Amino acid sequence: MKEIIGEVPGLAVILVGQRRDSQTYVRNKIKACEEAGIKSLMTELPENCKEEEVINAVSSFNEDPSIHGILVQLPLPQHLDEEKILNSVKLEKDVDGFHPLNMGNLAMRGKEPLFISCTPKGCVELLIRSGVEIMGKNAVVIGRSNIVGLPTSLLLQRHHATVSIVNAFTKNPEQITCEADIVIAATGVPNLVRGHWLKPGAVVIDVGTCPIEDPSSEFGYRLTGDVCYEEAVRVASAITPVPGGVGPMTIAMLLF
Predict the structure, then answer these.
(1) CB neighbours of 252 closer than 8 A, spacing ≥ 6?
(2) Rounded Cα distance, 163 and 171, in Å
(3) In 10 A of CB 94, how many CB atoms?
(4) If one looks up domain 10-98 in CATH, what number appears?
(5) Model pTM score
(6) For residues 214 and 222, is the Cβ–Cβ distance under 8 A?
(7) Which of 14, 33, 83, 184 shows its CA 20 to 30 Å from the CA of 161?
C-alpha cells in the first residue's frame, strides 16, 4: 500500500489509567502494528481524567484521515460513561465493534456489522481453524460483558450453536457448564472453572487475564486465566493457555 498509493492503515489507541492487563494488551497491539507495517498512535490519559478529555481524544482521531481505526481500551474507570465514549467513535472507525449499531447488527439475522469485536471473533476463528464443529453443539459462555460475553454468544448463534450464558446470578453454573461441548470463559475471576465443571472431551477457550503478582516476571506480574488449566487439561480435548491463547488471536483479528 505504501509503495502503490502512498498510504498505510492507521490505528489509534486510547488508554485510560494503569490497569496491568490493559497495558499488556496495548503494548502487544502496538508491537503487532509495527511488525505488520501499520501506523499506530496512542493517547494515554490518567485514571482520574474527565470524560470530556477522553471524548476529545476520540474526536481528534475521528477527524484524522490518516487514522482508519480507533480503539478505546476497555474497561474504563468507573466514573466515566463507557457507552457515551464508545458512541463517540465514528462507526466506520469502530474496529472493536462496540458501537451500538455494530452490536445491534451482530444480534439481528440478515444484518452484517461493519466490525465484529476482536476477541469473540478470535475465539470463533480458533474453533474453526482447529476443526471444531460449532453447528448444533451446546456452547456455554461464562460471563456476559459487552466486551466479550455478549458478542461471543451472538457470534456463536450465527454459527448455529445452542448457546447458554452463565452469569453471577445463574443457579447451578457447574451443572450447566458440564453439559457443554464448547466452553468459553470470560469473567476475570482466576481459576473459577475447575476440572469437574467440564464434560470429558469439551473444548475450552479461556479469555480470562488476571494479573497475579510475580517478582520474577519481567513486569512484576504474570497473567492467569478463568480456567484452572492444570485440572481442565486432564478433561478437555482442547484448551487455550493463558497467556498465549486468545490474546494473540484478538490482535490478529484486529489487524485483519
Answers:
(1) 32, 122, 125
(2) 16
(3) 24
(4) 3.40.50.10860
(5) 0.87
(6) yes
(7) 83
- Which cell numbers hold the place of 205? 477457550
118-250 shares the fold of 10-98: yes
Beta-bridge mates of residue 42: 13
User: In the structure grid, which three cell numbers stand for residue 24, read together?
Assistant: 499488556
The amino acid that residue 196 corresponds to is H
Q: Domain 118-250: give its CATH superfamily.
A: NAD(P)-binding Rossmann-like Domain (3.40.50.720)
| Residue 196 near residue 174, CB atoms below 8 Å | yes
Which cell is 100 given? 451500538
Catalytic annotation, residues: 29, 73, 96
Domain ranges of the chain: 10-98, 118-250
Q: What is the pLDDT of residues 154-193, one digit of tens each?
A: 999 999 999 999 999 999 999 999 999 999 999 989 999 9
Per the document, the length of the chain is 256
Residue with grid cell 502494528, as numbered in its chain = 33
